[in-house]
Amino acid sequence: MAVFRMKIAGAVAAVASLFDSTPHYLGAYLTDEAPDFSVVVTEEDLRFEQAELDAEAAEEGFRRRAFTDPFLERAAIQRAFAEYLFRQDTLLVHGSAVAVDGKAYLFMAKSGTGKSTHTRFWREVFGDRAVMINDDKPFLALTDRGVVAYGSPWSGKHGLDTNISAPLAGICILERGSENKILPISAPEALEMLRKQSYCPMDAAARPRFEALTAQLAAVVPLWRMTCTKDPQAASLAHDTMG
Predict the structure, then answer these.
(1) Residue 49 near residue 90 (C-beta atoms within 8 A)
(2) What is the pLDDT of residue 229?
(3) Torsion of CA 211, 215, 221, 227, to 10 degrees
């Protein structure tokens, strides 16, 4: 058992975890600040997360995987943050977010399309100017000053994340192609992908608010669709176009 506090996207949770390894994994996000909410992980939570991952694998056509209990615990904490932050107009999204010169850019795509490869090109092309916010599960806070992207410790198999925030300059839907090409798209064109790649709370009553929040996101952030090759020049084109 471990007891600690962690902070993501401005929210602080007091966490009681089953495994001592969990606070080490979440180390960059630990804090001594006063908590806004509490998370107590149980064995039942672990079983629930495995069942959810099984369902997700079946939906995507992937082979079922049996995850370790510490992994499932971290997934339960992620879900608790996603549920709490949703009530603060902050969405957990599936995508790769990179910052260049203090502005964030988010790339979404179907699994296996190459989001991580594309943002790796950004780091290669822009060097120290580029910082990975999160390679898998960043948070997006919708504020009266615009949308802000936040890092989180749930950063996929590559473990690329930084505990920073940056204003979101654009969202780009990636597709594989034979050439590098990027064009602006409308909010209706992006909404299906945005909703598919954003966390919707477990309570069915939250669905209208989820749809409204994702519609607001699509309305206030520049949106793009890009076909790209495995060529670092794709990063230069995307950055120059998205601004």
Answers:
(1) no
(2) 84
(3) 80
Pick the closest to residue 150 from 83, 217, 92, 73 (CA basis). 92
Q: Place 157 in a pLDDT band, splitting at 50, 70 and 90.
A: confident
- Name the CA dihedral angle for 130, 160, 173, 85, rounded to a multiple of 10 degrees: -110
- Yes or no: say if 132 and 123 are a contact pair by the CB < 8 Å rule: yes
3-state DSSP assignment of residue 226: strand
pLDDT tens-digit map of 174-200:
998 889 999 999 999 999 999 999 999
Structure pTM? 0.95
Segments in 6-107 forming alpha helices (H): 21-25, 43-60, 69-86
| Token code pair at residue 211 | 């749809």
